[in-house]
Amino acid sequence: xxxxxxxxxxxxxxxxxxxxxxxxxxxxxxxxxxxxxxxxxxxxxxxxxxxxxxxxxxxxxxxxxxxxxxxxxxxxxxxxxxxxxxxxxxxxxxxxxxxxxxxxxxxxxxxxxxxxxxxxxxxxxxxxxxxxxxxxxxxxxxxxxxxxxxx
Length: 151
Description:
Blueprint: E1 2-15, E2 18-19, E3 26-32, H1 39-51, E4 55-56, E5 62-64, E6 72-77, H2 99-117, E7 122-123, E8 130-145
Parallel strand pairs: 3-6, 6-7
Antiparallel strand pairs: 1-2, 1-3, 1-8, 4-5
């Protein structure tokens, strides 16, 4: 499982010119799944995301988590995070899980993040042509991979 986490002042998803998932201050999380992902990967990643200390405290030091700031999370599926670009100029997505695997993983991941956060998260619409709008705060952008925890 691979994620891109962006600290945002606001973010939203629009599908077919309809605003479906706006958030205020918090995290935009783009998540990609592969066939080998397990519930343990989802558990590890959800705990990491919710507890990452990337929000400023009273002194402006990144010392608070999204949970501690009562921030929101927008979670969007993105299979292109598993693009293989080693050969040629056209990325291959062979590592990305097929929808029959990734949809249940995505839904379970949403549940795990909500449990860790203690409230509902907003989501995109799986498989839809989504327009993601964000105002990156910082900017702060972090990439994590459950198969390469030092990434």
